[in-house]
Amino acid sequence: MTTKISINNGAKVIILGLVIYLPLEPIFIKIIPLTYRSIAYLAPELILLITFLGLVTAGVFKSGHWLKTTLDVPLLFFIVVVFCSIILNNAFSIGSLENVNSLLKFLPVYFISAVLTRSGTSKFIQRILNIILFLAIIEIGLGFLQKAGANWISAFLQPVSIEIGGLEHSSKVLNDARELGSVYGTLGDTIHYGWFLIIALMIILARIDVTKSSKRIFLWLFAFLLMLSIGFSYSRVLIISGFILLLLNLIFNMKEQKSFRLVVWVSVMLIVGIGLIFLYSQGAKFLNSARNQQNFFQDLLNIFSEGYRKIAFNYGRLGWAIEAPPTVLINKPFFGFSPDMYLAYDQLNSATHSIISSVRPIKTMEDVYWVAIIIYYGYLGLIAWVWILVKQFHLVIYLRRLSLPSIQHQVVKIALLFIPTIAITLFANQVLEFRIASFYFWLFLGVLQGIYWKSKRELLVQRTI
Asked: Is 223:392 a contact under the CB 8 Å cutoff?
């Protein structure tokens, strides 16, 4: 028993340490000597893997069996699909390993946080939420300083590139590929900055539900500053995601009949609004925001310009979204073209029955990540990931009906917002591969699983009394 308690305490320290460390990681990496940067970059994944194996070993020795989670079957199904894709495409390469690792590197967090939540107290969850909100305040402050033109802050926060296995990992900030005027705080990239604040916004919206009316004004002010700072990231996807998040929060907080009416009205307004913007933007010139200073509203309207649509089809996500799925369906529908990005790219463009009309840059192939999943793992891979998200959403709906303590209710609400937001943004970027978003995604799903185990155990105890 003492050994198990010490392992759990050590795992809690590691999880809480990473909750603090990952948003600040680019700063730590920058001050580490060049020789050790790649090791430092991989350290969180290795530490989590060792922690996971330690918890599993201790748990199996104690109970004699593996604690089943709601994701065991869909995750196992996906892993089988991955192996089949690698074998059938003869893709035994570093590229395959790296791509699969990018997607699943923080999966151990799911199992670790589930076990810790099941055996621990609410303080563990409370500390996670408080740390994220405290760091979000720091990021908002740094973002405002960067926006105000404090060059010394931007110079200090600018990230460095890292070389791992001969491949360079560098932020687009270093390549001047991010929008002029955008900010990135300690996260090293505007996308990661925006995603961290999106996660903080979910926590605030969840906290509003359990806070007295008189104190909600301060939380709504916090939410406003978060939305403004997300805007400073100049990420069109994340700005839209922020508004979708607010809309989802409103829908989930309303009664079923009212929420249906709201969805209908909002849908009509969106269709009319997008139609008017589309007509207004006809003939409008597309301005590359990496080279032209714009405010984030102008940057957002850019996507409706004719120039952007042409670029998106010929070089980017629109062309991939239209032409890649049917090409996979005709050629390799079940297991795709392999997890190796470069091999998949070559096979896709040279497929016997291909409808790919132009050779697009490989770097844009993952912009619509649902399509990238189809390219890498086929339609069975797509089914696996839809299964994972739907399975978790069903768990959220189940837990939402229970009478839970305040802190657990907050986590359920966060997951309720997180899962559909992830599903939607996968149409526009590779969020599941981003270090920040991926870590917190698996963390909250794990805590959710722990709450489910705990609720089942408490229900069992009540029945036996």
From this structure: no
CA atoms of 435 and 343, how far apart (whole Å): 24
Q: What are phi and psi of 94, to 5 degrees?
A: -60, -35
Q: Which residues pair with 164 in a beta bridge?
A: 167
Report how far residue 396's alpha carbon sits from residue 404's, in angstroms, rounded to the nearest whole number.
Answer: 12
Q: Which helix (H) or strand (E) holds 168?
A: strand 167-169
Query: Could you give the CA distance from residue 331 to residue 323 in angstroms, rounded to a whole number?
Result: 13
From the first residue on, what is the mean pLDDT of each consecutive set of 10 residues in the chain (465 residues)?
69 96 94 88 94 85 78 97 97 93 96 91 92 98 89 85 69 58 90 96 95 88 96 88 89 68 63 53 48 55 66 79 94 96 92 79 90 97 97 95 92 96 92 95 97 84 62
Domain of residue 377, residue span: 2-464
Site of tokens 């991926």: 438
What are the residue ranges of helices labelled H in 178-255? 190-209, 216-232, 236-253
Structure tokens at 150: 């404090």
Q: Does residue 233 sit in helix, strand or coil?
A: coil
With both helix axes pointing from N to C terminus, report the angle between 435-464 and 406-425 in degrees, rounded to the nearest 10: 140
Number of domains in the chain: 1
Among 370, 344, 338, residue whose Cα is nearest residue 356: 344
Cβ–Cβ under 8 Å, residues 117 and 432: no
Contacts of 88 (CB under 8 A, 6+ apart): 332, 335
| Residue 53 CB contacts under 8 Å (≥ 6 apart), including other chains | none
Residue 444's identity, in one-letter code, is: F
What's the CA gap between 250 and 108, in Å, rounded? Answer: 33
Q: State the first-to-last Cα distance of the chain, in angstroms, to the nearest integer.
A: 26
Q: Which of 430, 439, 452, 445 is nearest to 75 (CA)?
A: 445
Helix axes 341-349, 94-104, angle to 10 degrees: 110
CA-to-CA distance for 460 and 69, rounded, in angstroms?
18
Q: Where are the extended beta strands (E) located within 67-144?
A: none
How many secondary structure helices (H) and strands (E) does the chain include? 18, 2
What are the distances in angstroms from CA 271 to CA 260, 284, 322? 17, 20, 21
For residue 114, give the nearest of 454, 461, 464, 449 by alpha carbon: 449
Task: Provide the 8-state DSSP code for 169.
Answer: E
C-alpha span between 198 and 244 (Å, rounded)? 11
In terms of Cα–Cα distance, which of 368, 384, 375 is closest to 427? 368
**Helix H or strand E segment including 58:** helix 37-63
Alpha carbon distance 388, 199 (integer Å): 20
Hey, what are 67's tokens?
């604690």
Rg (CA), the chain: 23
> Is 42 in a helix, a strand, or coil?
helix
